[in-house]
């Protein structure tokens, strides 16, 4: 994917037959590769503006009986973006990379699906693609 990013400074995302505005992937990749939460949130909000979709709600509690939260969500559209950070941390010590954590994520995402949510999962490096998919869903509803 990094070689792909190097060849394409600006890329129009095409998801479900729809083309979004061009997004500067090189700048985004630099800003999100190892960013903290505040920088990630700023990147998501900037992408929402570039993709011309409503601003998402950060850390939305979506389940009536559990304390689960989506990283970013568009509740009016029942679309959520989960950014899977720490996947490649040394020693497998990312927040969601152990067996028990993966099982918890599966349970969370299955419950979200039953409640009518469409959840897009993305690594920080692929945030543009994840946001493009969310934008395509939002525009199709």
Helix and strand topology:
Elements: H1 2-7, E1 10-11, E2 14-15, E3 18-19, E4 23-24, H2 25-32, H3 37-50, E5 57-61, E6 69-74, E7 79-83, H4 99-114, E8 118-122, H5 127-140
Parallel strand pairs: 7-8
Antiparallel strand pairs: 1-4, 2-3, 5-6, 6-7
Quick overview of this protein structure:
This protein is α+β, with helices and mostly antiparallel strands.
Characterization of this structure:
This protein is of the alpha+beta class and 141 residues long. The protein has one domain: VSR Endonuclease (Endonuclease, Chain A, 3-Layer(aba) Sandwich). Helices cover 41% and strands 21% of the residues. The protein has five helices and eight strands. The protein has helices at 2-7, 25-32, 37-50, 99-114, 127-140; strands at 10-11, 14-15, 18-19, 23-24, 57-61, 69-74, 79-83, 118-122. The strands form three sheets. A four-stranded mixed sheet has the order 5-6-7-8, sandwiched between helices. It has a two-stranded antiparallel sheet with strand order 1-4. A hairpin with a 7-residue loop joins β5 and β6. The longest helix is centred in the last third of the chain and has 16 residues, at 99-114. It is globular, with a radius of gyration of 15 Å. It starts with a helix and ends with a helix. Residues 1-35 have low confidence and may be disordered.
């Amino acid at each position: 994917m990094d070689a792909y990013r190097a060849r394409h400074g600006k890329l129009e995302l095409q998801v479900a037959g729809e083309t979004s505005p061009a997004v500067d992937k090189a700048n985004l990749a630099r800003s999100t590769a190892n960013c903290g939460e505040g920088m990630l949130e700023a990147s998501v909000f900037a992408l929402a503006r570039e993709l011309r979709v409503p601003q998402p709600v950060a850390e939305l509690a979506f389940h009536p009986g559990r304390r689960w939260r989506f990283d970013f969500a568009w509740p009016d559209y029942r679309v959520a973006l989960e950014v899977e950070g720490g996947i490649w941390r040394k020693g497998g010590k990312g927040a969601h990379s152990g067996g028990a954590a993966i099982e918890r994520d599966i349970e969370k995402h299955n419950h979200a699906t039953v409640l009518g949510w469409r959840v897009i999962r993305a690594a920080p490096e692929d945030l543009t693609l994840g946001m493009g998919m969310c934008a395509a869903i939002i525009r199709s509803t």
